[in-house]
Write a structure and sequence with these properties.
Blueprint (H helix, E strand, L loop, with lengths): L4 H11 L3 H10 L4 H20 L7 E7 L4 E8 L9 H17 L4 H6 L1 E2 L2 E2 H12 L4 E9 L1 E7 L4 E9 L5 H17 L11 H16 L9 H19 L5 E2 L2 E5 H12 L3 E10 L11 H9 L1
Antiparallel strand pairs: 1-2, 2-5, 3-4, 6-7, 7-10, 8-9
Helix pairs in contact: 1-2, 1-3, 2-3, 4-6, 7-10, 8-9
């Protein structure tokens, strides 16, 4: 029995399976819709459900900027193995998702899943990739920004950075270079905050307590006057800012100046205003608890 494109669409609607899997099922079922649904339940949907429980902590981070639209997106999509992260079909899917984010501005992950890229929704595309690739795949997170933005991808998608600026130097080669420098600094050093003002008061209070305890436990320092101890703590807090705040950090290309001073010098040379407003740094798999496989236990369980 022959089948048409409408039959494929109807089967997709009934099963939420990928287009290619629907075509294969209808071919195998000789065009019989009910039999095709049974086949997909046995093969496709069961396979997807099984994979959904597996840990996906590999994958890629992609940061992309559309200069014409002045819109950027950064996205992390996870896979189970690093091997899949090099798959051209998988990478194309990640790029398509970034384009959807840039063009359609979804509010959250659920909204992104419902967005269409061509004929299919992102959710349908993802489901099809799971079936074709044979691994659990997850769109984990994304951020979209508008304005003058620099993006950087490190180590083939291990780390992605997106930096937003306030400037009237947009498009100038010197500003483009500065943007890349700042993004690379964030990728390499991973600052916790943009500037001093962003550090929560409770973080500094806790840091001061730790520093004071260190001084009081130091045989050479514990008998110093309280005022001297306070000054020492303040000095060490200054060091905390230099280590944890992007603007205060030593610039990796020239550690004689801070990142803030580097930005100011480029702005002065251009006769323009340049200010770092915010940044996003995604590192592939950060915070995901990976399953530790015990080979001996695995073999023992197989023997049992």
């Amino acid at each position: 029995m022959a089948f048409t494109a409408k039959d494929v669409q109807a089967l997709r609607a009934a099963t939420n399976c990928g287009m290619m899997d629907c075509k294969k099922a209808l071919t195998e079922a000789d065009g019989n819709m009910e039999k095709a649904i049974e086949l997909l339940r046995e093969k496709g949907l069961a396979a997807v459900a099984k994979k959904a429980g597996r840990v996906a902590a590999e994958g890629v981070v992609l940061a992309k900027y559309d200069e014409a639209k002045k819109v950027a997106a950064i996205i992390e999509v996870n896979s189970e193995t690093d091997f899949v992260a090099k798959n051209e079909s998988f990478l194309k899917f990640v790029e398509d998702c970034a384009d959807v984010i840039i063009e359609q501005n979804p509010a959250d992950l659920d909204a992104l899943m419902a967005c269409k890229s061509g004929e299919f929704t992102v959710e349908e595309m993802l489901r099809e990739k799971v079936l074709v690739i044979g691994e659990n795949l997850k769109i984990r997170r994304f951020v979209r920004e508008e304005g003058d933005i620099a993006t950087y991808i490190h180590a083939g998608g291990k780390i992605g950075v997106m930096v937003k600026f306030e400037t009237n130097a947009g498009g100038k080669p010197e500003f483009v270079e500065l943007g890349k420098d700042i993004a690379m600094q964030i990728a390499a050093i991973n600052p916790a905050y943009l500037c001093k003002e962003e550090v929560p008061a409770e973080v500094i209070a806790n840091e001061k307590e730790i520093l004071m305890a260190q001084i009081q436990n130091d045989e050479k320092l514990k008998n110093k006057p309280a005022q001297v101890m306070e000054k020492m703590v303040e000095g060490k807090v200054g060091k905390y800012y230099k280590e944890n705040c992007l603007i205060e950090q030593a610039f990796v290309k020239d550690d004689k100046v801070s990142v803030g001073e580097y930005v100011q010098s480029v702005a002065k040379n251009l006769g323009c205003n340049i200010k770092i407003l915010s940044y996003v740094r995604f590192e592939k798999g950060e915070g995901i608890e990976k399953k530790e496989d015990n080979f001996a236990d695995e073999v023992a369980s197989m023997i049992k």
